[in-house]
């Protein structure tokens, strides 16, 4: 286990996943702050911290559940004809549906941030919260909504890194715990940075489109899908890491050029 966690692939996956979890968790922090700010001032910090810790536990439980489904690799349905062959398993279905969800959610979020940036904030502001318990329940609901794409991203980044799926699960849990701790400790500085550089969050959502496409191709590869006798291959994760690193480098250059101007 330790040898795997200290390997180059695992460290790169952990750093990339933690970065994405933090970038994608900014909206979560904003909405949690809105919910907590409806309470008396002495309860706001308590509600935020309790809510985030419970949210972390909720995400870990969901990771166990989704990882269990992804672990069901045995085909339960086979289809063959002259141009298409596939062997469906629950693993392939979860990855395929998850990939479609990530592409849909990311595209919707990008459109919303461009056209209706305050839509979600206005809907949360309209909800009535009068007690600490109500605020915590609201925070858990908000986090559940935001945790689906987070968990699918974790699955996409770590699936296939090691033959033993438990190793990948441990890596995902570490990334979630680190990202939540960082968000608790540095929520305001991170939020100010994203407010100052909104393109970083759009870039994070664009990465999800890449991960969603990778999940779809991986689902096709794991179900041994063949089109006209040609088998669908999996996309090496190194390509994904390179695309993310290159995009971040270009964004860094853009921001540096903008500051000089």
Automatic annotation (TrEMBL):
Keywords assigned: Membrane, Transmembrane, Transmembrane helix
Keyword Transmembrane found: yes
Membrane-spanning intervals of the chain: 12-35, 47-68, 88-104, 135-155, 167-190, 202-222, 234-253
Membrane topology qualifier: Multi-pass membrane protein
Superkingdom of origin organism: Bacteria
Entry GO CC: membrane
Annotated compartments: Membrane
Primary location: membrane
Signal peptide span: none
Alphabetical list of PANTHER family matching this protein: MEMBRANE BOUND PREDICTED REDOX MODULATOR, SLL1022 PROTEIN
Family: Belongs to the TerC family.
Protein name per its UniProtKB record: Membrane protein TerC, possibly involved in tellurium resistance
High-level lineage: Bacteria, Pseudomonadati, Bacteroidota, Flavobacteriia, Flavobacteriales
């Amino acid at each position: 286990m330790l040898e795997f966690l200290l390997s180059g692939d695992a460290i790169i996956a952990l750093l990339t996943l933690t970065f994405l979890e933090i970038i994608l968790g900014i909206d979560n922090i904003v909405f949690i702050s809105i919910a907590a700010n409806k309470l008396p001032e002495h309860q706001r910090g308590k509600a935020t911290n309790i809510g985030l810790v419970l949210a972390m536990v909720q995400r870990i439980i969901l990771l166990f559940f989704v990882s269990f489904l992804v672990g069901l690799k045995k085909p339960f349905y086979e289809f063959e004809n002259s141009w298409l062959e596939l062997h469906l398993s629950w693993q392939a279905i979860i990855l395929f549906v998850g990939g479609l969800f990530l592409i849909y959610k990311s595209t919707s979020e990008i459109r919303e941030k461009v056209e209706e940036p305050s839509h979600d904030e206005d809907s949360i502001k309209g909800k009535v919260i009068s007690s600490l318990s109500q605020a915590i329940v609201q925070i858990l609901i908000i986090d559940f909504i935001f945790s689906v794409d987070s968990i699918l991203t974790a699955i996409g980044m770590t699936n296939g890194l090691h033959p033993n799926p438990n190793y990948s699960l441990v890596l995902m849990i570490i990334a979630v715990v680190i990202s939540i701790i960082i968000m608790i400790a540095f929520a305001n500085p991170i939020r100010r940075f994203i407010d100052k550089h909104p393109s970083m969050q759009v870039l994070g959502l664009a990465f999800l489109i890449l991960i969603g496409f990778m999940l779809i191709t991986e689902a096709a590869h794991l179900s041994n899908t063949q089109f006209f006798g040609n088998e669908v291959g999996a996309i090496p994760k190194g390509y994904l890491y390179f695309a993310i690193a290159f995009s971040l480098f270009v964004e860094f250059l853009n921001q540096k050029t903008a500051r000089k101007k």
